[in-house]
Amino acid sequence: MTAIEPRVRRDATGPDAPVPPDWAALLPGGRLGSVAVVGPVTRSAHRAQQASSTARPDQLADTVIVTDDRASALRTAMALVRPGGAIRVERSRRRRRARTRWLLRQRGLIDVTTWWARPDIDHPRCLIRLEDRVAAATVVRTVADRRRRTPLEVAVAWSGVADLLAREVSIMAMAPGPCTERALAGPADGRRIDALVTPGYRRSRAVIGIATDGTGRRLHSVAKVARRPEDDGHVAAEAAVLEDLERRAGGFAGAPQEARVDRRAGRSVLVERAVPGEPLDRRAVRRDPVGALVVGRRWIDGLPRHEATVPAEDGRAEALLRGPLTAVAARPGIRAATVEVASEVLGRIERVPLPVVFEHGDLGHPNLLVEDGTLAAVDWERARPDGLPLHDLVFLVAYLTESLERSGGAEQLGRAVVRALRPHGWARPELDVHVERLALDRSLIPALQVACWTRHLAARPVDMSTDGAPSREEALWMAAVDAAVGRW
What we know:
The protein is of the alpha+beta class. Helices cover 38% and strands 19% of the residues. It has a twelve-stranded mixed sheet, sandwiched between helices. Helix 11 crosses helix 16 (445-459).
């Protein structure tokens, strides 16, 4: 029996509020508003209810989620949605999709689109629009996770029968009404959004909309929008970093080009040209880890940098050394003795002249792409124009080492990264080349490793730790501290 669930019981605001489903970026204003559910409450529908705003029972809903695609349920949903609102039919069954779209159009709904969620609706990593088979095939070939992508999926998307064969397909439609601008109306040149790339973890701040170039070979442009309104400033900050990089480097080929910020539906949207290349994922790393490190080191060498200054005098000591260590010391479960040792180690580099380097800050999959032996990086959310040397290279070595380690926990990873960077480690030759280019004293390498992992541990949310066992960042930090003082 079709049921209508109460719309919403809480006002979701603040950094700890539930994250709205990522398909909300496709809605007018990019927001769910008030939510009604017609049919059984699925996990995805429950998440939408948690993240939506309060609505009275006598009001029409801004968003209606239908989990029962029978005609009676669709008619109920159409009676519930307000003018200008949206209907989403989740997990539409294969034999009913064509009829569902026809019924929605017959009742006057507009912009009826079909979205394929991969790998599933509850945990999507990519949502693909199926109306354009060329665009769908392009997205499957270039964006979808290669560990789950098969040649058959590409062929199915290209042939136009994905709508008939794909699982986890939803249909979205808009009710005619007041024109409300959509944040992700189109990345650039009026092109339509062909896919959403969604984050793999709850705390991610943004959702990415992608448009293809229409040839079936390339992506055209991307648009990034904040998942929560309070994270809107981070999108504008990333655009400012890319503008700064463009100004300093005079056109840095390894970063997104033509980046700008548009104001759409009252939100900041970072629009940029898509970066070409194949993902440097774990499979690619395992094929040639040294080659991956070489292209990564060359890319890092090309980032802009300034003459060496003393961190204690230029503000970097407080922002990148003392401040992060204070945050780490406040975390539950962190030993005071380890913090004291880390403080001593970091004190060695506070008053030593160090180059001021431009950092990306997150050199790992899925942010790395390779084309013709040249690296490029996307997602500059953590970038800094006033960073510390070795930060990016140490982070990259950790990602490559983790790709090679097929088993073992966080502590084993921490020791493996330290081994890789030691004088006879597999990554040390490239590290030495980079250090020489920076004219850096090799004795500072251990302390700079500690600085790298102190910052990453400080930025990691406390509530993501697991059962008392050290997290990945905790293990990397502790291993670096122990190695810096000769304990390991």
